[in-house]
Structure formats: structure tokens, C-alpha cells
Structure to design on (103 residues):
């Protein structure tokens, strides 16, 4: 299994519409990518670091797929639509990382 982390940087100058993200974007991701092996979606809001300073990332989506091939198939089938929706909720560039789940 793999975990895709999509991390949106924090910053006072960035726009992020949480209502749109949770109400429209995440349901779109699930609807389009579940048939391609997306098995779980978690959304986490960054609140800070242990030292009390601000979080590096304001929002993170954790997407679990059965395999990297599933993720690639989902992206090929609906990636353009998913990525075209991003400007509707943020003006920042996400960092995307592919992780292998070990335990």
C-alpha cells in the first residue's frame, strides 16, 4: 500500500477556502479516484509545532492507494480534473510526496 501526502504550505499571505476543500474538492477526489484504488482519505489541519511556532503546512490530505499503479491510473483517468479544481480553494502550490506504508 502507498500513502500520497498532499501538503499545502502555511502562510498569512496564502488563501485557503476550507469549506470548499471539504465540501467540494475532497468529495470530487473520492468520487473520481475510489474506482481506481483509492481506499482511504484523511484530511489534517496543521496547528503548530511542539515549540509553539506555526505549522509549516496549513492542510494535508493523506490518500491511501493499494499500489503505485492504482495511483498512476487514477491520475491518468482524472488528474486533469482534480488539479484544475485546486485554484477554486487555494492560491498556493502543494507539495506531493509518495510514501510506502510499512506498518
Amino acid at each position: 500500500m502507498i500513502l500520497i501526502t498532499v501538503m499545502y504550505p502555511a502562510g498569512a499571505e496564502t488563501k485557503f477556502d476550507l469549506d470548499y476543500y471539504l465540501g467540494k474538492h475532497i468529495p470530487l477526489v473520492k468520487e473520481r479516484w475510489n474506482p481506481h484504488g483509492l481506499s482511504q482519505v484523511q484530511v489534517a489541519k496543521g496547528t503548530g509545532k511542539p515549540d509553539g511556532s506555526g505549522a509549516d503546512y496549513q492542510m494535508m490530505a493523506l490518500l491511501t492507494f493499494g499500489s503505485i499503479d492504482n495511483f498512476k491510473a487514477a491520475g491518468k483517468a482524472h488528474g486533469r480534473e482534480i488539479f484544475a479544481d485546486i485554484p477554486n480553494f487555494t492560491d498556493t502550490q502543494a507539495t506531493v510526496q509518495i510514501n510506502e506504508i510499512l506498518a
